[in-house]
Amino acid sequence: MTTAARPSPIAWLIAPAGLLFVLFFVLPFAVMTAMSFYSGNPVTNPNAFLTTRHYERFIFDTAGIFHEALWSTLRIGLITTVVSLLIGYPLAHWMARMQSRLGHALVLMAVIAPMLTGIVVRTFAWMTILQDKGVINTTLIQWGLIEKPLPLMYNEFGTIVALVHIYVPFMVLTLTGVIGRIDERLEQAARSLGAGRLRAFVEVTLPLSLPGILAGSLLVFALSISAYVTPSLMGGTDVLTLPMLIAQQVGTSFNPNFAGALGVILLLVSLAIVVAYNRILARLAGGQGMA
Amino acid sequence: MTSAAIKLDQVTKTFDGRVMAVDAVTLDIAAGEFFSLLGPSGCGKTTSLRMIAGFEHPDSGRVHVGGKDITDLPVHRRDMGMVFQSYALFPHRTVAENVAFGLRMREVPKPEIERRVAAALAQVALTGFETRKPGQLSGGQQQRVALARALVVEPPVLLCDEPLGALDRKLRQQMQFELKELQKRLGVTLVFVTHDQEEALAMSDRIAVMNGGKVEQVGTPTEIYERPRTRFVADFIGEINILDEGGQLRALRPEKIRLVAAEGARLSGTVETSNYLGGSTLLRVQPTTGPSMLVRETHAGARASRAPGDLVGLTWNDSDAVALES
After folding, report:
1. Whole-number Å distance between alpha carbons of A28 and A24
2. What is the three-state SS of A3-44?
3. Residue B70 and residue B76: Cα distance in Å, rounded?
4. pLDDT recorded at residue B103
5. Tens digits of per-residue pLDDT, A113-150?
6. What are A235-250's pLDDT values in tens digits?
7. Beta-sheet pairing, B157-161 with B189-194
8. Is some CB atom of chain A closer than 8 A to the CB atom of B105?
């Protein structure tokens, strides 16, 4: 038992990851939380004092924009997640059940390829498609189907379209792994027992893929509520999300303490939603949740 | 329980347009029969079964069950029970829910479902396991749940795809008896796919031996074993000696050969190896000319009398050397 205390040499291999995690997650998060309870920067300003006024400012919301920003952040996140799931699930199911290895590789390439381009580039691509003088509007006007351009961007619709495009691959990759591990013979057994294809899917494959739906949805939700570039570019003046508000507070209002409070609030609210979501799905799956 | 006859009529299936999986197979399976499809992997036995079940559609040829052409009927309307090699139990459902599944799909009223599930579980001696999940059961128990799930809807036909393949030898033997007994009691037509010749011989009323997508021979276990028609069938089932008598091949089972004195025997030679198998001993004898011969010496009580190096004579009845088709 004397050797039990000695860590395996392999354990040292996670040291870089651990260091990275502490340096770029734990530490900034601690600083952000600490800052959110100070009136100013306690390092440069000796008069800074402890306060909860940043949280009060958000809760009482006299400016009338903070609650709306939180709500639109969550709304955009939820809609993006649901749409990504609706688009991603059939694609993932098709990929997971594909017999041909070449076909699988090609579809996988097609799913991953957009991720090779940066988010900014992809968002600009959507702008050239959706704006008033963009591909869709000019085409429709030329065909005489509409007279004025449709409001396709600088609003929530455009934001969600671009976010879905960016985050669907995450959904597909997560789901493909889970669906691929479900034995195809389970569905065949259901069909041999009298269930049609759709019924067999609903009774067997769908409930067994709930862990994948859960993981994929959480991933896409977390990514889209923290998205900054896409809502800023696609949303115009119509959309204000919490990440945009935080950037404003840091960049133009020079109020990092209030920005810190907003960050903590976003984190707490999304954690609460994640826990609730997990509970509900776990109950549906009969205790197969992830947490 | 009702049972139905199955007829495959010139059924052919290719995969990717190239590989001939099943090549013009015609089979007549009687109602209530225990019928095995036996052959090595890739011989087309599983594809044939899947065409009866409806998971594969034949390229040509028809499938009839109970006198009706069901070739174009979808799987869920075929009303057949199926037991898969891996059991394919629903892991997220309890034992009772698994067994109830087929009844639920048929919209049987709830009290009747409960009654029939209880009866089906009693039939496979699993009363008391209703609320367990499949993952909490042993391989043999999972096997019995799969059987109960397939049989509870009282299908006229039960299809089994190597259902005992994953069990250890002792349990497999026990399940062979149970399955056969159950099949006889219910009178269901059972099509059984296996690559295990002992299993096929032990359980079947009739066996179709398949090779390369074709049926080599159909017959009772005794016919298949005692009177193999082709070299493949003779080779595939049990140990065999192939004799070449002027171009005519003959198959001779090792236990049909008697050990006698070397002088005046049909063949004489030296014992090369002697494998003691408990109930019998398998000797490999190298004659002075020709290929070596397998001889099975069965013994009640005492063990084999010959050792490697002994000179022995071999003899057999002409009628036991079965002429093979070329």
Report:
1. 6
2. CCCCCCHHHHHHHHHHHHHHHHHHHHHHHHHHHCCECCCCCC
3. 12
4. 95
5. 888 888 889 888 999 999 888 899 999 999 988 888 88
6. 888 889 999 999 999 8
7. parallel
8. yes
Instruction: Give the contacts of A178 (CB within 8 A, at least 6 positions apart).
Output: A209, A211, A212, A215
Task: Residue A281: list chain B partners with CB under 8 A.
Answer: none
Q: How many contacts does A have with B, using Cβ atoms within 8 A?
A: 64
Distance CA A58, CA B170 (A): 72
The identity of residue B20, as a single letter, is: M
Amino acid B301: pLDDT: 56
Task: Identify from B51, B101, B162 which residue to disrupt to test chain A contact, counting A C-beta atoms within 10 A and taking the largest count.
Answer: B101
Interchain proximity A185–B106, CB inside 8 Å: no
Is some CB atom of chain B closer than 8 A to the CB atom of A196? yes
B92 to A183: CB separation less than 8 angstroms, yes or no? no
Q: Cα–chain-centroid distance for residue B36?
A: 4
Residue bearing tokens 């002429």: B323
CATH of A65-290, one of 3.60.130.10, 1.10.3720.10, 3.40.50.2300, 3.90.180.10: 1.10.3720.10
As a whole number of angstroms, the distance between CA B232 and CA A140 comes to 71
Using CA atoms, how far apart are residues A194 and B74, in angstroms rounded to an integer?
Answer: 10
The confidence score (pLDDT) of residue A287 equals 46
Q: Do B92 and A207 touch (CB under 8 A)?
A: yes
Distance CA A129, CA A164 (A): 15
Contacts of B215 (CB under 8 A, 6+ apart): B25, B26, B27, B208, B209
Higher pLDDT, A263 or B2: A263
B165 contacts in chain A (CB < 8 Å): none
B116 has a chain A CB within 8 A of its CB: no
Contacts of residue A116, defined as CB under 8 A and 6 or more positions apart, other chains included, come to none
Q: Please indicate if any CB of chain A lies within 8 Å of the CB of B19.
A: no
Q: What is the pLDDT of residues B122-181, one digit of tens each?
A: 988 899 999 999 999 998 899 899 999 999 999 999 999 998 887 888 888 888 888 899
Domains in chain A: boundaries: 65-290
The mean per-residue pLDDT over the stretch A39-61 comes to 87
Distance CA B282, CA B277 (A): 7
